[in-house]
Amino acid sequence: MLSLMTCLVLAVPDAGVPALDRRTRELMHTEVNLALPTSLPVETREAAFAEGFAVFENIEAELNEWKPGSALARINAADGKPVEANAQVCDVINLALSGAKRTNGLFDPTWAALRDTWKFGSAQDGTVPSKEEVAKQCALVGWQKVKVVTRANRSCSVTLPKGMKLGLGGLVKGWGVDRVVTAWRARGLKDFYVQAGGDLYVGGLVEGRKWRVGIRDPRGAKSASFAKLELSDAAFSTSGDYEHFFQKDGVRYHHLIDLRTCWPARASVSTTVLAKSATDAEFLTKAAFILGPKDGQPLARTFGAAAVWVTPDGKIHATEGFEKELLDVWAPSGLPE
Q1: pLDDT for residue 66
Q2: Rounded distance, CA 289 to CA 108, Å?
Q3: Which domain holds residue 269?
Q4: Contact partners, residue 322, CB within 8 Å, separation at least 6
Q5: What is the CATH number of the domain that holds 301?
Q6: How far apart are CA 23 and CA 30, in angstroms?
Q7: Which value, to the nearest 10 degrees, does the dihedral of the CA atoms of residues 47, 50, 51, 52 take?
Q8: Three-class SS string for 171-187?
Q9: Of 20, 26, 93, 276, most Cβ neighbours within 10 A?
Q10: Which residues 6+ apart lie within 8 Å of 103 measured at CB?
């Protein structure tokens, strides 16, 4: 079994391991994994890998809000003034706003106003902000307030109200996966996988069979899964409360924030989505995590997607009919049974 990421596990037949040429790079604060069959000519593989990693390098240069001088950093630093942006940046921002609309704001790129209020990752210090701090910054969250004026050549100007920030980390990995898939299909490639963080697309077959993908056990080791799926030509994304979190007084505070309250969501421990595209899966997995299985299932249906939830009581829930697709199901560890 090959552990691909903190959220997903990809299993291939042991005999098929030499049949895949896998490449890995650290980009966008995560691990990007690409794989192609070794049966392809070396020059074909090298050109495809270069093209694939270039997609993510470009995203890191232009759409990384933490990188000084990036387009997104300039937009966030404009203090209410309009900022000119190129077509790619405008396309992604418009896509993010569309995702916010389609999820009724459960996915919202303006979440970044909360970045210095809720500190996870390298900035984590274990401090729980006050209700007053959260409420103050929460007032700056609202995708409807972002003004984008798009021109005929798809460039645009972007204006944020003072204090508002855009964060596209919840979108660009899936968007990048979809761009690589499109580029590789244009090259005539059929069998491959493209993965960035918790977002994965598997194309075609491996060793003549579907790819087997495991859903990570939210309280187990990174390589442990509680269920598996067999997939082909599908996008797959998982979000969990184990990715970036701290615990204080017995309470787990994590980075999946319910933007209706601006506090960590409590309806789910992890949510996995199977969707038509990695971008849709990335939008939906966060929204479905916040809603939980009862309210998340109708939303999944509007996307034409399937979803699996693990809830805090240790139970597994799936969209209607999808539970039949789950293989090798085990009770998640470390949760009530």
Answers
A1: 77
A2: 14
A3: 1-337
A4: 274, 306, 307, 308
A5: 3.10.520.10
A6: 14
A7: 120
A8: CHHHHHHHHHHHHHHHC
A9: 93
A10: 283, 284, 286, 287, 299
Mean per-residue pLDDT of the chain: 91
* Residue reference for tokens 């060793």: 207
Identify which has the larger pLDDT, 4 or 66: 66
Q: Which amino acid is at 30?
A: T
**Across residues 33-54, what is the average pLDDT?**
97
How many angstroms separate the CA atoms of 244 and 246, rounded? 7
Q: Judge whether residue 198 has pLDDT over 80.
A: yes
Collect all residues with Cβ–Cβ distance below 8 Å to 284 and sequence separation of at least 6: 103, 237, 273, 275, 299, 300, 303, 305, 307
Alpha-carbon distance of 89 to 168, in angstroms, equals 10
Which helix or strand (DSSP H or E) is residue 11 part of? strand 8-11
Q: Is the C-alpha dihedral spanning 66, 69, 73, 76 positive or negative? A: positive
Report pLDDT for 29: 81
15 — pLDDT class (breaks 50, 70, 90): very low
